[in-house]
């Protein structure tokens, strides 16, 4: 029975990525190569992050929220941002529109993140006899993460790739990008600083991801308008 | 060509490595149970090939409380029963009708009874405790004497398992099938198949305290033997500590050895009797160890034994003591022995009665230890609080026989009784009112010594087949006897024939909270519809509704594309 549960959780964790790819025009323009490249960039970034974390962070003795350490962690988290920048600007993509480029990068990024962070715990944990809600929640978290990453990539593409943005929107774009980039720190604060339970944290993440996605979408289409 | 071939080989080796990794990952078994509980298996043994006890050890079933709901299949369910609300007759029915269950887990109270003193203050409670103890004895005999084709385990109550039991009961009362949200539990004990123990060693420990020979006396000195069997037998071998049967006897023997070692260390007070102390094993199996020990004794030594006193279950304060003999009480030796005891007993305010039970040589059953002595024509008596001879494998330290059952004061009293009457016999003060081991003197019985040894014995399960030759406990007994006697011998013997035992007496129970099949099905339905909705939503927002409809109208989209 437990394999069934594992299968369910895996579908919840990785299904949305596949659906996103096949349902949107990404599949029609065959942007898989871009996503794969983004995933590879993610791997590199993760490695750099690991090295940084290992160098600068102390091993936490307890599960408390230490502001200084968390700040450092957030700064190291900005390496992600650099990775996305690299993936968006430096990689030579085949001729795909900006519209699809950031989606492909975000998708590849989020998928690699899910595989790295969630596949192993899922394989080890969800096949156990003991039933917990944890893996289902983890799957939901992965969904929220997908939305957040795509939003972040959208912001990145607005910042770096689009030159003629409406002036008034620039601070909002930067603010959004900042919020998106600091999401991991925020959730970690909620979890450990405020002691929220996992279901609450996940619902918070889902909620913010939807809100941020909506805002990013509005921003993106607002920037698109003058050129169209 | 060669290059391509080489590349193929490399690829193949990579595939095999990947396959290996997958196999390794699949083999990872993690113990991530919600609760892990120590459980003790019901003993499994054969008597001349006839199987008894719990025949299996592996458990992997859903749990249910006992009067099970009609929906459950008893052969695939573990029944979790608290001893407090056990209905013995229904269990009896199950066992005698040999109905198949998935397994049985009996929860024993943490402390069987708080303490005798406390209980004595509250009369009602004592009665209740007596009742539970009786029930436990009955249950134990039932389980030991039956052939049970499923695993039976004992565990102790604690908060965790009580919570599990409450949960299970609640679900059973509602008649709900086990689901993730309402708490279905799976009990898993994974142990290797129980194996026959190759041989069971009985270890007898013998201590020798020589008496003082008068100068020029060539005759051998007479010997007095004091014997107690120290091993136990009970429903759960890992729990049979046998504080009273026969921990109390063994402790009394050690204390008597200590007292006489004080006397014998000084030549002025060394008596004209040798003292032989024997801690024998194999008590539950017709005193097999005693029999072997006697056989191996030197012929001359054996003939020099004047009489032997066996100590058995002397730890309870409120019952009178009985001297069990196999010769008629009118026999001169027996009479002398009995008078020696009753004289001292009168001084101590104890009643000692005498019980005579003839030996049937053709019957292999030996109910009392002294009967082994009587069979080799040595005068012997057993001092015990039991008035009736116990049956085979009965009264040898079952689950109920724990430390609270024994009162150290009773053991001290028995020690005084035996030591005093021995001393009067040795020094020839029969019938005189002299207290040699007077309280407060340097020769007084030491209650803290008795208590500490009782505590140790009450912590050590001592079922002989599961007690290895060089068990620390046996070494401790030997060391203790070495301190008090001049010469100590250890004798290892094999347990005779008809008994075969199986291992795996103790293991760990993993309790998992599991989801039901229905829940998993439901979950996958929900997930499927979620993904479909997501798909539709994404198609509509990015390509428009027409595209979505188009997708369903013209499924061979590739054809369209090429067209």
Provide the fold topology.
The complex is a heterodimer of chains A (228) and B (563).
Chain A: H1 2-23, H2 32-56, H3 67-90, H4 98-126, H5 134-160, H6 170-181, H7 183-193, H8 198-227
Chain B: H1 2-27, E1 35-41, E2 44-47, E3 50-54, E4 59-65, E5 77-82, H2 88-96, E6 103-108, H3 116-121, H4 123-144, E7 147-148, E8 152-156, H5 159-174, E9 184-189, E10 201-209, E11 223-229, H6 243-265, E12 274-280, H7 288-296, H8 299-304, E13 305-312, E14 321-325, H9 332-348, E15 352-356, H10 369-375, E16 380-384, H11 408-427, H12 447-457, H13 472-484, E17 487-494, E18 499-501, E19 506-514, H14 517-543, H15 545-553, H16 557-562
Parallel strand pairs in B: 3-7, 4-5, 5-6, 6-8, 11-12, 11-13, 13-16, 14-15
Antiparallel strand pairs in B: 1-8, 1-19, 2-3, 2-18, 4-9, 9-19, 10-12, 10-17, 14-16
Helix pairs in contact in B: 6-11, 6-12, 6-13, 9-11, 11-12, 14-15
Features:
heterodimer; A: 228 residues; mainly alpha; 0% strand; globular; B: 563 residues; alpha/beta; Aminopeptidase; 3 domains; eight-stranded mixed sheet; seven-stranded mixed β-barrel; 16 helices; 19 strands; 40% helix; 20% strand; elongated; signal (chain B); transmembrane helix (chain B)
């Amino acid at each position: 029975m437990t394999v069934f549960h594992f299968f369910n959780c895996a579908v919840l964790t990785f299904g949305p990525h596949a659906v996103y790819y096949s349902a949107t025009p990404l599949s029609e323009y065959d942007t898989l190569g871009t996503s794969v490249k983004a995933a590879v960039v993610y791997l590199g970034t993760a490695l750099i992050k690991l090295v940084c974390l290992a160098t600068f962070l102390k091993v936490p003795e307890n599960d408390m929220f230490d502001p200084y350490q968390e700040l450092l962690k957030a700064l190291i988290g900005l390496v992600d941002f650099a990775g996305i920048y690299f993936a968006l600007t430096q990689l030579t993509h085949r001729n795909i529109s900006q519209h699809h480029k950031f989606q492909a990068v975000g998708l590849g990024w989020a998928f690699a993140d899910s595989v790295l962070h969630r596949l192993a715990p899922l394989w080890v944990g969800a096949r156990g006899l003991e039933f917990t809600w944890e893996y289902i929640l983890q799957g939901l978290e992965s969904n929220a993460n997908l939305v957040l990453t795509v939003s972040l990539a959208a912001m990145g593409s607005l910042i770096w790739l689009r030159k003629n943005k409406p002036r008034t929107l620039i601070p909002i774009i930067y603010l959004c990008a900042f919020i998106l980039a600091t999401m991991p720190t925020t959730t970690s604060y909620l979890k450990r600083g405020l002691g929220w339970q996992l279901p609450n944290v996940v619902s918070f993440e889902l909620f913010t991801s939807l809100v941020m996605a909506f805002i990013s979408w509005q921003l993106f289409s607002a920037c698109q308008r003058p050129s169209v | 060509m060669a290059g391509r071939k080489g590349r193929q080989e490399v690829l193949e080796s990579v595939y095999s490595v990947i396959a290996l990794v997958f196999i390794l990952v699949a083999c990872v078994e993690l113990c991530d149970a919600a609760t892990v509980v120590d459980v003790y298996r019901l003993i499994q043994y054969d008597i001349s090939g006839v199987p008894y006890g719990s025949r299996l050890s592996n458990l992997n079933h859903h749990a249910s409380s006992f009067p099970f709901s009609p929906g459950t299949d008893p052969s695939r369910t573990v029944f979790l029963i608290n001893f407090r609300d056990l209905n013995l007759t229904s269990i009896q029915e199950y066992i005698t009708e040999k109905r198949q269950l998935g397994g049985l887990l009996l929860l024993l109270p943490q402390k069987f009874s708080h303490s005798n003193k406390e209980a004595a203050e509250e009369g009602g409670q004592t009665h209740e405790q007596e009742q539970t103890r009786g029930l436990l004895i009955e249950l134990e005999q039932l389980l030991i004497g039956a052939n049970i084709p499923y695993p039976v385990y004992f565990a102790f109550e604690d908060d965790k398992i009580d919570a599990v039991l409450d949960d299970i009961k609640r679900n059973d009362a509602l008649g709900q099938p086990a689901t993730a949200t309402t708490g279905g539990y799976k009990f898993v004990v994974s142990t290797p198949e129980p194996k026959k123990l190759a041989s069971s060693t009985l270890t007898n420990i013998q201590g020798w305290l020589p008496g003082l020979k008068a100068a020029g006396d060539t005759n051998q000195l007479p010997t007095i033997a004091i014997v107690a069997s120290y091993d136990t037998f009970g429903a759960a071998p890992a729990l049979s500590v046998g504080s009273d049967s026969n921990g109390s006897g063994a402790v009394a023997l050690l204390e008597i050895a200590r007292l006489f070692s004080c006397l014998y260390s000084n030549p002025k007070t060394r008596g004209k009797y040798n003292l032989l102390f024997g801690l024998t094993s194999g008590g539950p199996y017709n005193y097999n160890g005693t029999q072997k020990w006697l056989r191996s004794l030197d012929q001359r030594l054996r003939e020099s034994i004047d009489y032997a006193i066996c100590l058995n279950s002397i730890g309870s304060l409120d019952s009178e003591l009985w001297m069990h003999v196999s010769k008629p009480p009118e026999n001169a030796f027996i009479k002398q022995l009995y008078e020696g005891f009753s004289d001292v007993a009168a001084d101590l305010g104890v009643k000692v009665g005498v019980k005579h039970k003839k030996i049937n040589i053709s019957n292999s059953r030996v109910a009392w230890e002294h009967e082994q002595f009587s069979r080799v024509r040595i005068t012997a008596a057993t001092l015990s609080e039991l008035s009736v001879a116990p049956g085979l494998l009965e009264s040898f330290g079952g689950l109920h026989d724990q430390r609270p059952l024994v009162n150290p004061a009773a053991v001290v009293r028995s020690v005084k009784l035996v030591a005093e009457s021995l001393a009067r016999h040795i020094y020839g003060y029969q019938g005189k009112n002299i207290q040699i081991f007077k309280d407060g003197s340097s020769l007084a019985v030491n209650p803290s010594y008795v208590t500490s040894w009782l505590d140790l014995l009450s912590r050590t399960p001592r079922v002989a087949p599961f007690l290895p030759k060089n068990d620390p406990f046996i070494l401790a007994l030997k060391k203790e006897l070495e301190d008090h006697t001049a010469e100590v011998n250890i004798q290892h013997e094999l347990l005779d024939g008809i008994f075969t035992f199986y291992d795996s007496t103790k293991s760990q129970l993993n309790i998992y909270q599991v989801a039901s099949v229905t829940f998993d099905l439901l979950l996958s339905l929900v997930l499927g519809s979620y993904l479909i909705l997501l798909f539709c939503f994404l198609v509509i927002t990015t390509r428009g509704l027409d595209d979505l409809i188009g997708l369903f109208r013209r499924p061979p989209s590739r054809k369209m594309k090429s067209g």
